[in-house]
Amino acid sequence: xxxxxxxxxxxxxxxxxxxxxxxxxxxxxxxxxxxxxxxxxxxxxxxxxxxxxxxxxxxx
Length: 60
Prior knowledge:
Blueprint: H1 2-14, H2 18-59
């Protein structure tokens, strides 16, 4: 009986429930989106800076 409970627990660990999988997937997706958003923000900032420099250079 104890072995059956242990076996079921191990099975749960290796074959987690669907909601557990979905929670992990959504967590991964959210962090990935956050990273993409941050990097695109940084890239846009860099592009804006460089275009400002070019405009400044052309104006003077």
